[in-house]
UniProtKB/TrEMBL annotation:
It comes from the Eukaryota. CDD domains: MBD (cd00122). GO terms for molecular function: DNA binding; RNA binding; SH3 domain binding. SMART domains: MBD (SM00391), WD40 (SM00320). Gene3D superfamilies: Methyl-cpg-binding Protein 2, Chain A, YVTN repeat-like/Quinoprotein amine dehydrogenase. InterPro entries: DNA-bd_dom_sf, Methyl_CpG_DNA-bd, WD40/YVTN_repeat-like_dom_sf, WD40_repeat_dom_sf, WD40_rpt, Znf106. PANTHER family: ZINC FINGER PROTEIN 106. This is Zinc finger protein 106-like isoform X2. Residues 48-124 form the MBD domain. It comes from Biomphalaria glabrata (Bloodfluke planorb). GO terms for cellular component: cytosol; membrane.
Length: 518
């Protein structure tokens, strides 16, 4: 394959021409490498070693971007001038080895060094972790940024054809895939994290445990259960508590190191004690609430709340709260709770005293029934069937404000983390709201770009699960500026690939544009 262009006409490089140029350059480079190997084998081997070293950051979630400059007039360079940028897994942008060195020292990342990064304009050929694009002209009408990088779908497809089928299956979490967590086992009823492990409860299968260390996630254990209703994990006691029908099971999970490196969870294997403790309940267990260090509150279909001491392995007490089944339990206190918040099947939110075992008040303010709750900083957030989210002060029962109103889309679940409220809607988007300002800041797609049923935030990971059993994650970036340029659509995506999916699936003409400043 050959591609030639007069040097006098290189002043403006189109996207397609740039990709063709890179493909021709790669082919010529391969030929030159063979010749160089015959002339100087030692040097070629060292170059190969450096190339392998430069590929290491990609396995930890780093991205590399080569931006070719737009030149004016005659350009006599054999290759177009370009700038190289690196993006960390959390989305931070780096322009020099000095910036990367400071970042690695600040985060105490001993797995990577500045020797693993190169700011040479030569490609490492690790698409999609490495993207080549052309700097766009500065537009006077753009108030969001002084620089834009345009990604064209046709150009991306050209590069994608350079990889084998096996390579395309391992190129990273941003591309089409079912999940970075292997296996779809039916509807996900709960997700939670303990000791850097993700526990996923599948209603018709059981519990799968995944290691969250490293870029590639690894399944390390499974607990089989054909009729799983709910789950909580006690990190302190090393127990997985499962509600299944009228039975409550306590599964002891221990960590056994296998391999020389005990600092990596990828070298570990998890096992479950075969002698699990079980409790027979008076009715179906609908929900569980773990109160550290030793109590598990069970919401039953009979309207009762049963309390189990998982350290002493015995039932502590059980009392009646409602004539309706208890569907959700939460509390503003992580230890020794004085109050419980219970959601009943008829959509009422009850505030219950754990001392008197009675209902103190019923929270008012929703025009329709509530079906999901989350609590943070003594505020209770509830979703009603009209897709409004209202916050109440738990101790006084006072309505604070309407967090989300006039939402035309149904909301399936919510999650609160670090002053941000995440909601999963029927349009498949996950919206991130700043609770202090009440404004929508970013949107994301969830697992397999389907309607999401569960949301969990762990560190900078947005973990999502859907009703078909797919579980996935994406890095959260509260500083991202990836706006949809379609008229009437002003979503700001926290991930540039999610913007790519949005514009290709929702709009007939893709306009993928990243508005991060250089």
């Amino acid at each position: 394959m050959s591609y030639r262009r007069d040097s006098d006409s290189r002043s403006e490089w189109s996207e397609t021409e740039m990709i063709k140029f890179e493909m021709a350059e790669t082919e010529s480079t391969n030929t030159a490498t063979v010749m160089a190997l015959k002339a100087n084998p030692k040097r070629s081997f060292e170059d190969l070693q450096r190339s392998d070293s430069w590929s290491i950051p990609f396995s930890f979630g780093w991205r590399r971007e080569i931006v070719y400059r737009r030149t004016q007039g005659s350009n006599k360079r054999k290759t177009p001038a370009a700038d190289v940028y690196y993006f960390s897994p959390s989305g931070e942008k780096f322009r020099s080895p000095t910036e990367i060195d400071k970042f690695l020292k600040l985060n105490r990342d001993t797995k990577l060094t500045t020797q693993n990064f190169t700011f040479k304009t030569k490609k490492i050929n690790q698409w999609p972790n490495e993207v080549c694009c052309q700097a766009s002209k500065r537009g006077r009408r753009s108030s969001r940024s002084q620089f834009r990088t345009n990604y064209n779908i046709e150009n991306i497809n050209i590069e994608k054809q350079e990889f084998s089928t096996e390579e395309q299956q391992t190129i990273g979490p941003e591309l089409d895939r079912t999940s970075c967590f292997p296996g779809n086992y039916g509807p996900v009823v709960e997700v939670c994290v303990a000791s850097s492990y993700l526990y996923v409860a599948y209603g018709n299968y059981g519990v799968h445990v995944y290691s969250l260390d490293g870029y590639k996630k690894k399944a390390v254990h499974k607990i089989t259960n054909q009729d799983l209703q709910c789950m909580v994990v006690s990190e302190l006691q090393g127990l997985v508590v499962i509600g299944s029908g009228r039975q409550l099971s306590l599964c002891k999970v221990t960590l056994v190191n296998e391999g020389p490196n005990i600092h990596h969870h990828d070298q570990c294997c998890m096992h479950t004690n075969v002698q699990n403790s079980t409790f027979d309940m008076t009715s179906t267990v609908n929900c569980l609430l773990l109160i550290a260090p030793s109590l598990v509150y069970c919401g039953l279909a009979s309207g009762d709340i049963s309390v189990i001491n998982i350290v002493k392995n015995k039932k502590k007490e059980e009392y009646k709260c409602s004539d309706q089944p208890i569907m959700c339990l939460t509390s503003p206190e992580e230890t020794s709770p004085r109050l419980l918040c219970a959601l009943t099947r008829d959509g009422k939110v009850l505030v219950i005293s754990t001392l008197t075992k009675t209902v103190i008040t019923t929270l008012l303010g929703h025009s329709q029934s509530v079906f999901n709750l989350c609590v943070k900083q003594r505020l209770l957030y509830g979703i009603a069937e009209d897709s409004t989210v209202i916050a109440h002060k738990i101790y006084s029962g006072e309505k604070v404000n309407d967090v989300i109103t006039n939402n035309k889309l149904s909301i399936n679940c919510i999650h609160y983390n670090a002053d941000f409220l995440y909601t999963a809607s029927s349009d498949r988007l996950i919206r991130c709201y700043d609770v202090k300002t009440g404004k929508l800041t970013h949107v994301y797609y969830g697992a397999n770009r389907k309607v999401i049923s569960k949301i969990l935030v762990y560190k900078n990971m947005l973990i999502t699960a859907n009703a078909t059993g797919t579980v996935d994650w994406v890095a959260i970036d509260h500083t991202a500026e990836n706006y949809c340029q379609k008229v009437g659509c002003n979503f700001n995506f926290g991930n540039v690939w999610h913007l790519f999916w949005h514009e290709t699936e929702e709009h007939s003409t893709p306009l993928l544009t990243s508005t991060k400043s250089v």
